[in-house]
Amino acid sequence: MNAFNNLRISTKLTILMLVLCAVSAGCLSFAIFKIKQIDTSYSFLVERDSPALVQSVRASRFVSEMGYGAYRTITNPGASTEAKEGAALSETSAQGAMAAFDKAAEYDPAQAAEFAKLKKRAAATYDLVKQAVEFGMSDQKDIANMMMKQADVEIAQFSADLVKFNNEAVEDAKRASDKNGAAVDATIYITIGVGVVGMLAALGLGMWLSRSAISAPLQRLADRMSKLAGGDLTVEIAGQDRKDEVGLMAKSVQVFKDNGLEMRRMEAEAAERRQEAEAERARVAAEKEAEAAQDAIAINSLGQGLGALAAGDLTYRITADFAPKAAQLKTDFNSAAERLEHSLAVVVGTAGSISSGTSQISEAANDLSRRTEQQAASLEETAAALDQITATVRKTAEGATHARSVVADAKSSAERSGEVVSAAITAMSGIEQSSQQIGQIIGVIDEIAFQTNLLALNAGVEAARAGDAGKGFAVVASEVRALAQRSAEAAKDIKTLISSSSEQVGKGVELVAETGKALQTIVSQVSEITGIVTEIAASAAEQATGLNEVNTAVNQMDQVTQQNAAMVEESTAASQSLASEAVELARLMNQFKISADGAVKTIEPGRRAAPPQPALARRPTVGGGYQSGAATARKLEPAAAPAENEWAEF
Amino acid sequence: MSQSTLPAAGAELISVSIGGQLYAIDIMQVREIRGWNVSTPLPHAPDHVLGMINLRGVILPVVDLGARLGLGKATPGPSSVVMVAQVGDRQFGLLVDAVCDIVQVTEGLMQPPPDVGANVRDFVAGVMSLEQGIVSLLSLDNLLPATSEAYGMVA
Fold this sequence. Notes:
Chain B: One of its GO terms (biological process) is signal transduction. Chain B: It comes from Phenylobacterium deserti. Chain B: InterPro entries: CheW, CheW-like_dom_sf, CheW-lke_dom. The complex is a heterodimer of chains A (about 650) and B (about 160). Chain A has 12 helices and no strands. Chain A has about 650 residues and is mainly α. In chain A, helix 2 runs parallel beside helix 4 (about 110-135). Chain A is flat, with a radius of gyration of 86 Å. Chain A starts with a helix and ends with a helix. With about 160 residues, chain B is mostly beta strands. Chain B is built from 4 helices and 11 strands. In chain B, the strands form 2 sheets. Chain B has a 6-stranded mixed sheet. A 5-stranded mixed sheet of chain B has the order 3-6-7-5-4. The interface of A and B includes residues 450, 454, 457 and 461 of A.
């Protein structure tokens, strides 16, 4: 047993496996042997008995066919093809039966004598059938039939014997197969039994081996190790004499144990040294405590001072006595607080100034914004008015051009009128000449009338002298005289008319001449008008150009004004945010407590900085807001008011 | 000078215009009426004698009747007419401004000239009222004396 313990765990397991393998191999060999035996038995059955049986059956069939072929020969005429085929079939069947019996004997030598006897019987039967066929071929049907009757008995007997033989063979085969099946069952049972026994033995051996030879020593060793880990170094490490892995592990655990003992010894030494150091430290701490008391005073004072500073009290000064090494801190703190207070006082004052300045800037920016808006509006109106003026001037220019063309027409008309006038004058002078001619003719008529009158008078005179005889003549003479007088009167009337007509013609000529002069004057004046109208048109065009330039300039001004307005808006916003920042600064400054002269300044910016807020609120309402804003500005800054008015006027 | 009788009703008179006034001459004393032609002056003739004219070969003196009647010198015009008068056996040309009409004397038309003391009655045989106004009938016998003595006497 001790020798087994000294084996390695792998070796122990290998031994166990070998035992298991031996058992398995025994079982397997037995099973193989048995299977081989059964296989041989079956082979015998299959290779010998079965083919012999098959050949025997085939021989039986051939014998039957032999009879069938003989009958075909007999029933048909001897010369016919059917008869010949029947004879051939009968012959081949007989040969087949012989061959089948030979083969059967070959397959099953144990039955060879039986098969030879059967073959002999088949040959005897065939001799009979062969004779019957020969008679059938020679058409001796009666003899053939007689012979066949004899042969039929033989064939039937033979077939029945064959069947009996074959059945016996089949029974033999079945018996052999049952025997083999029993052998197989026995083999299976034996194999299972031996296998189960082997497995149980192997299982028991394995459990024993794992528990007593491997697990138990390891468990013991683990207990010792846990005790070692728990600090118990007095534990005895067993199993060091073992040669297996457990022995090796026990040796290693012994090393651990030795190391632990050594470490415990060294720890004791270290504790001694630590106690010495502790004593030294206590001494130094006492010294430090004394020093700390002094520092605490300084730190407390500084803490209070810094706390006051943090709370915004800049008037606080350190009064406590400091140790000589911290005295510098006290003076430095006091001077720093003083400097800080002074600086903050200045800052507070400056913040007040900034606040008032930013409020002024904010108001001024508001005013500027408003005026810029007004200016922008005025500029827009100006631009619109300029557009209208431009349109008007353009119209004027067009009108002037139209007037020029109309005046040119008038001029040409006047010139044509002059021609008409001269033509009228010519016509009038013609009329005058005609009138003169008419006057001359009338003079002639008048003269004739006069002479006629004279002649009539003379006639009257002669008639009167003639006395009663001349009475009729006197009447004629008086009639002639009357005619002459009427002629003379008519001539006189015509003369008067002609003279008045020629007078009027003369007047007409004068008037026409005057008209001609007037027309020439008109022509010259129209020329002047043309010149003037052309000048007007040119100047109107120049005006239009000039107005365009003015328009461009106004547009540029408008843009600039709008940019100014935007900039003013920005500056207003900036100034307002600056004002609020100043207020915030003042508020922050108020948190600091400063000596009396500084404190006055801290309050002032807060009050002064208030106005910009309302101004911010008022901004959207331009009109009213401006008035009140201006009023406020005037109240606050009387000096700024005149300048503002000047701006407004500007 | 003999008082010439007033012409009976039915007699014919020729009315003439001298200096705007109408005068009448007995048609029986008138030989011819003709237009004015410039007369040839007669030296040393009285003022009312204008000169001489040739009437179909007969030289006749031409008397300015206006001037002779004291109405001022006539200015011959286109209507001026020379009346050839027969006084006795002499013929004269009488320049008048114009011949107006032949007037037939009716009963009661002719009246004696008013007696105003002067020798008006020597020159005017009678007066008559017409539509045109009052017309004086000249007495050529007294107006144109037959001799130069008579002329002077009358003048």
